[in-house]
Amino acid sequence: LTDVVTQNYMAEPEIATVCLQVLQGLEYLHSKGIIHRDIKSDNILIGTQGQIKLSDFGYCAQINKTQSKRTTLAGTPCWMAPEIVQRKEYGPSVDIWSLGITAIEMVEGSPPHLEDPEQAIRLLTTYHVAPTLKDPEQLSVEFRDFLGKCLQFKAENRPSAAELLKHPFLSNAAPSTCLLPLIESAKKSAVLDDLTI
Question: Which residues in the chain come in under a pLDDT of 70?
Fold first, then answer.
């Protein structure tokens, strides 16, 4: 997904398609007591027919009835949920936060504060401020609401993957094949970049 995000403008139906399939994957993982802990564009793969797959399970953590929360610092700074950065106990909702950051990444081409990850961490630990979009008015009300739910600062206020799958924004999702032109465009850009080196 990273190549697509950095080389293309993604429309809301395309973003909804990615978010829908990521949430389906997260709902499955969470139902098995697994927290991914590193949701970001680098770890979201797009198949040849536009199907979305989660990858890089190296930071995954298992939770169960005896250990329902984790405390380990894990993930990639710009995508980390506040409770991870603040070294508090956390659960599956950290993946929902990271999906919200990834959705911003799909809109803007990079996550907030990519050039200064320490600033992202400072905003979460010192000021308790969730990242914002550069131009939120360009987005639909449904998409802004979806982001607002993902990026609830308090983990207990974030919906689960199963709950978020019912969000109206996801009804805008197009068939997976809508991602194919974006893949082709990203491939062409990569080839052109290789030729200019």
Answer: 73, 127, 190-197
Tens-place pLDDT, residues 161-193: 999 999 999 999 999 999 999 999 888 876 666
Which CATH number characterizes residue 63's domain? 1.10.510.10
Q: Is residue 87 annotated as a catalytic residue, yes or no?
A: no
Question: Rounded to 5 degrees, what angle do the CA atoms 13, 156, 100 make?
Answer: 25
Can you spell out the DSSP letters for 141-189?
Answer: HHHHHHHHHHT-SSGGGSPPHHHHTT-GGGGGPPPGGGGHHHHHHHHHH
Q: Domain range holding 154?
A: 2-179
In a domain, 136, yes or no: yes
Domain count, the chain: 1
pTM of the predicted model as reported, rounded to 2 decimal places = 0.89
From the candidates 37, 70, 87, 122, give the one annotated as an active-site residue. 37
